[in-house]
Amino acid sequence: MGRDVIIACDFSSKMKTLGFLACFRHIKPFIKIGMELYYKEGPSIVTELKEKGYKIFLDLKLHDIPNTVHKAMCNLSQLGVDMINCHASGGIQMMQAAVAGIKEGAKSALPILIAVTQLTSTSEEMLKKELLIQSSLVDTVKHYAENALVAGINGVVCSPLEASIVKELGLLSVTPGIRFADANDDDQKRIATPELAKAYGSDYIVVGRPITNAANPVDAYNKCLEQFLDKDENVNKEIEQDQVCDADQENQAEDD
Ligand code: C5P
Fold this sequence. Notes:
TIM Barrel, binds cytidine-5'-monophosphate, about 50% helix, 8 strands, eight-stranded parallel beta barrel, about 260 residues, alpha/beta
């Protein structure tokens, strides 16, 4: 899987999600299913969208004792998702348990396992005053990323502003907190435009409200692709989309 734009499908139901995805007609974007949708619809929403040909990042941010994370990851990776995550703040042993759970559960290809460093809604002030973490935000992101590397994790979730630190460690960087230059920040604190995320070396940008709340979500998605991907990556993406679309039509013909 190459660099890509992942749409955060933070919707309250399957109906709303399918309605939103229908705007894209024959395009099958890489999508993220998070807690809101998963807790409402359960695992069937993942299997159904996988069967329709979407690449899925299952963003449930596991954080528990190692044994529980091991068992939960084993179950989740049976869903055949492409990317999955846990919190780096659970520690190295917990992240190692996540790796083991994935290996045990995955039926074929292993999903990319990502560790969340600091949420993009966390500010330096909140880190110090509420969480009593006296190191700087950048230092904690770097340290958590180093722990993720030791645990055998593929990459980390961080703000685009920290992507270059993560890249130096040889890890993938998945970056939410994306906003167009003229947009509202919502609850995000450490934000960047798709262009800036690219310049900082982000591998995947996760974009929710700037696409889902846009007057024209397809235009907003295409704007993200144009700003984030290189020209040749965009061409490859179009070829990949055509192949997914052909496979979809063949499946449809078999069903009819
Ligand atoms: O709507 P918006 O673009 O802010 O959505 C960002 C998405 O990325 C949300 O689904 C949120 O849960 C997720 N996320 C985040 N910060 C992290 C990890 C995940 O915003 N560190």
